[in-house]
Amino acid sequence: MSLNNASQDLADFIQASPTPFHAAQSLAERLRAAGYQQLDERDEWVLDDDGRYFVLRNQSSLIAFSLGQLETLQSAGLRMIGAHTDSPCLRVKPQPERNRHGLWQLGVEVYGGALLAPWFDRDLSLAGRVTCRDGSGQLHNLLIDFKRPIAIIPSLAIHLNRDVNSGFAVNAQTDLPPVLAHSIEPGRDLRALLASEVTTQYPEREPMQVLDYELSFYDTQPPAVLGLDNDFLAAARLDNLLSCHAGLTALLNSDADQACLLVCTDHEEVGSSSACGADGPFLEDVLKRLLPDEIERIRAIQRSVLVSADNAHAIHPNYADRHDGNHGPQLNAGPVIKINSNQRYATTSETAALFRHLCQQVDVPVQSFVVRSDMGCGSTIGPITSSRLGVRTVDIGAPTFAMHSIRELAGCRDVEYLITVLTAFCNCSEV
What top-tier enzyme class does this entry carry (predicted)? Predict the structure, then answer.
């Protein structure tokens, strides 16, 4: 895949994935198109050598795997790539309706560690999962996406807040409810609006009652390649759909000789502690079904390696002092190995060396990141998965600016670099 094609394909993936539910659906659609067979955790699994499969949990987390030959799985283990489907955002509350001063608003809850200031004055839409009941009393989980701009969070004019440019603390309760409409029409009800949208998006289905929902606001501005030399990709949810896309592309590009697995889980931005998160049993449950014998499973895991892929902080030219002087990754200079002696990242010297070796083999530049010693360090699914499974792990990621903003920035060359090295990892028979 060429540089331009890689960035455009990532942009298309992001545009189709405004929520974790849509991201998992996008992954599943691409896997089906490549011949992967969907499994159901409630069924008995009969897996073939050379089989290619995927399984969804909660419609927001996905595991896909290509088995290769059974003896290869047992003798060489799995090449695993981990990422997450969720991103910081604004989630709609259960009883969100607000009618204030002639305007209809929805109350929101901040999901994850979002940069809040960039959410103001954006053209917002709404997407997510709704749970409905049909006329016979059956429940259905359906994904919806309004797609068009239906909301905005207007800034307060500088005339009414003269000190705003000296610092503005956003109050998540009072400052963030988006404006959707005039409240001239009495008794506006979100569930009725959602029911109407379900009928529009699923015309083949009978009208249904919306019982509950998990909805997120998102920016409708599409991804864009920008810069004088088209060096950069600006988009929402680069953290961490960039890694989901790179892992999926690597899996599909691999030669399928080596057993490979892609795990993309929800709820990383809020700690991963859920039935479908990295701190839940999803991956372990799947591995138990791939390798039912406990001893053989332990042996295979000890021959395996996990690449935990999650974006890294590139050195910002206006804030270079926020980085350690010797560890300032640059955009378009290759994937970043993330290291923390306090185990916020799971990288070891062994796994870092393996990743560097792979990068050298495919002529991909590689960088390192260590947080300043006087600053706190974020974390990833790497330490969680490594500690639950006992699998060797390296934490890496594409360098980005504005992480957790409504619009983030990455280097176009880094998209291709990450796909290239992850494909080499999937094809690596000895680690």
Answer: hydrolase
